[in-house]
Amino acid sequence: MSTLGTSRTATGPAQDDGPRADGARTGTADTAQPPPPGPDGPGTAPRGEFAALARGMTKELVRDPMALFFSVVFPVLLAGLFVAIMQLTWAGGPYTIAVVGSDTQAARLSSALGDGSRVTAVDGPRAAPQDTDAVVAPSADGEALRVVTDPESPSVVSALRDALPGTGWDGRTLEAVGTDGSPPFEPMPFVLPGVLVFALMSLALSATAGTLVSLRANGTLRLLRTTPARPQAILTSLLPARGALGLALLAVAGAVATVLGLLTPLSALTMLLTTALGMWLLMSVGFLLGGTLRSPELTNALSGLLTPLLLMGSGVLFPLELMPEGLAEVLSWNPVALLGDALRHDVTGGVTRHAQWLDWLLIAATAALLTAAAVRAFRWDTEKKN
Length: 386
Prior knowledge:
This protein is α/β, with parallel strands linked by helices. Helix content is 54%, strand content 7%. The protein has a 5-stranded mixed sheet, covered by helices on one side. The longest helix has 31 residues, at 187-217. The radius of gyration is 27 Å and the shape is elongated.
């Protein structure tokens, strides 16, 4: 049952023929009592209509346990599962590491690692032993450390990053590359953006599309259309609660990334922008589906089908590198993949495929097109018109 404040007159069954082209209603019964005239005169919506509608839509969301579960709880559980699996399968030390520098610096790094790793000082990268897991060389300007790793030992990068504060190299950026030229895979910079995308996707599909279809199916939106409330206010009143929930999800992901040393103050700002663009993209999908599908059951089924397909086909939770190169290149351009790629620009150690500005541009363009399609295709009820 809807929690929105709409009351009905007891004059008989509804005689609603739907909205006319000018936005007026032809039905006279089973309608919501219009709010009292506003300060601007009769027939105008009272001030604060948006706040009142937003409170009602927030109650709808809070009282929908399934939407909250799939938007918040399930992604967190999934993140915990992925982290546990990666911790069990991720190879650890001790490592064999060569440092381009002095014996003193090599000893500091060995002590900071604290796992029995063997660290030796060499004159140059080519002087490193053959079985070395990583070669660490300070950049010419002293601002960065270049790490060349064995592709079979990518976990050494995480170990080196964690050890930096105890080496005298703290504050320097780590530029890692495999001996084959590819960036080494790191689990947490990959998992965190993926889980955030999954949570935002669930928020758009389960908590937005599903809610809209239910409100259309039970007649709540049709009743609200008979009040002086503006149509755009009715629809956008769903956004504050979902925006706040999206910010809460971002705050949790950002806090975890900060604790793990994967987020800087500057990248936190760009992550906020990326998340805002991602919410625009995904919420436009939610409004498009919620405004066109006819039954909550069909919406839930379609959402359950779309979610795994998009997650697996976009490299959000499973690396695209596991797929054939040609297919991976094509899939890397779909909007959800671009969102995951943009978020991985924001975390230290994230492996990306495109420039972040290009990700942002394509996400915004796609979101604008989907928004226009959602506005054009939106229907206020689920009845078929003859």
